[in-house]
Amino acid sequence: MTHDIERIQALGALADQHVLPRHMPKPPAQLPAAPEVPEYAQTFAPLEPSEWEAVPTPQATPTTPAVQRNANDGVVLRCGADMESVPVVWLWKYWLAIGKLHILAGAPGQGKTTIAMAAAATVTIGGKWPDGSRCEAGNVLIWSGEDDPADTLLPRLLAAGADKSRCYFIEATRRDGDVVPFDPARDLPQLQAAIEQIGGIKLLIVDPVVSAVTGDSHKNTEVRRALQPLVDMGAACGCAVLGITHFAKGGQGTDPAQRVVGSVAFTAVARVVLVAAKVKGKDGEDARILARGKSNIGPDDGGFEYHLEQAEPIPGIQASRIAWGKAVEGSARELLTDPEDQTANEAMNVAGFLRGLLSDGPLSAKAIYKDADGAGYSRDQIKRASLKLGIEKTKEGMGGGWLWRLPSHPQREHEGSEERTFRNTLPSHSSALPSANSGGDEWMEITV
């Protein structure tokens, strides 16, 4: 080591005396100036040796992140030996059960909401049910997306003899300080808190029950997922939940519980399905019947006749109410052999189906096609029926869909003629009924 140092020092001395070997180039008298460092490069200053240890060592990223599990997580099991059987608690024995979901279905005009108001009135006064049994008095909570509480629901309740101090109506919900419309699909946690605050709620009415579904009401999994919180809330609050919905027409002669509009999950999740319909009595007169279409927790047959009548609960205010008739025996399918349509012929054709859908008001073409598909009708059949009925179709804005409604002045058919021609005027750009022509208004004729 010492010898090497001496050699290096000797070479340095020779360099000072300009006696370096020829093969070793003489160092320049002055080193060239360092090139100018660009401005962007000055941003990334080199690390000092003392900072090297601060640079983190790159770690390999795992392809599958580790799942953090709580030690207490797992499936909850319960042995039957640790459980005790308990009876179903009935609000109306074999018809309305505490903590269960019920569906009341029927065609438009059969008084479904009026029936629900009659049940609510019975609860508020601890009155008698149609079978003569006594009801335990309690409060009722009502949400309706179709009828106004002040001019429709409350008058019907009063006409049925309700104690209005026990009637509560859901008007809106408060979110982030703002009052917004109540949405059953979104606001059930706030609703449960309100029910617990009121106390004594025995019956909750949701009209229509399809409003509790955020997704597609024709998809089984989405309907089940949406209805379960409603079921859980009824069980937690100790009240019977009654959801109101419509029939899908075109299924005459089949099980009425299977004719509920939308997914079969509506009737599958509900423990009891009630159906209301108009039939032909033995004397040839129209009669209405409320029957059990399905029950998982009691008898699933039998029913009661009922009539709709007008009353004046407050001077100057008219309201409909239910007048109960005699009990009837048989399954819902047997009792409702001649359902709600005005005539049997109309019930069996597509025009009757479409007329029934639109009898409650305008609907979008998309919704009509969905219900028609569920009833076994094709789009072409519905389009032809719309021409036959003279359905009015309007476009909802530039990006909106088509809205269908019954005609303001129904077309009159030729009596006694087997061939009838109907005329329908539509804009040529109608997406609901495409035409080969491209310009101007047009009219189409069909013979049936």
TrEMBL record:
Stretches the record annotates as Disordered: 402-448
Full protein name: AAA family ATPase
Skewed-composition ranges (Polar residues): 423-438
Gene3D superfamilies attached to this UniProt entry: P-loop containing nucleotide triphosphate hydrolases
Compositionally skewed regions (Basic and acidic residues) per UniProt: 410-422
